[in-house]
Amino acid sequence: MSELIKKFKNLPNFFSLKGGSAEEITNAENTLNLKFSKEYCDYLLEFGVVSANGHEYTGICCSPRLSVVDVTLYERKHNPNIPYDWYV
């Protein structure tokens, strides 16, 4: 288990959804035309999305406000100064 996964699991008020599949991650990368970091892919496979310590973290899910694809596309549209290879 990666250090990132361990740290998330130890946060106060930790809650996660079911992890995404490799296919869902690839589809998200293709939609955004980029590659996620290995750590982020590990996070997506393990959790999908996370809520912990009063914060919500985007990922692979059907909620537009928590979907890395939907939030990143929104930010690209409304904040054109961010680099195209960033994801939220």
Written overview of the protein:
It is a single chain. The chain is mostly helical. It contains 4 helices and 3 strands. The chain has helices at 3-9, 22-32, 38-47, 68-78, and strands spanning 15-16, 50-52, 55-57. It has a 3-stranded antiparallel sheet, with no helix packed on it. The longest helix is centred in the N-terminal third of the chain and has 11 residues, at 22-32. 19% of the residues are buried. The mean pLDDT is 94.
How is the topology of this model organized?
Elements lengths: L2 H7 L5 E2 L5 H11 L5 H10 L2 E3 L2 E3 L10 H11 L10
Antiparallel strand pairs: 1-2, 2-3
Helix pairs in contact: 2-4
Derived structural class:
mainly alpha
- Mean pLDDT, as a whole number? 94
- Helix content class: 40-55%
What is the CA–CA distance across the termini?
23 Å
Q: Strand portion, in percent? A: 5-15%
* H/I helix tally: 4
Low-confidence stretches: none
Tally the beta strands.
3
Give the H and E element order. Answer: HEHHEEH
- Largest sheet strand order: 1-2-3
The value of Rg in angstroms is 13 Å
Give the biggest sheet.
3 strands, antiparallel
Shape: globular
Brief account:
By secondary structure, the protein is mainly alpha-helical. The protein has helices spanning 3-9, 22-32, 38-47, 68-78; strands spanning 15-16, 50-52, 55-57.
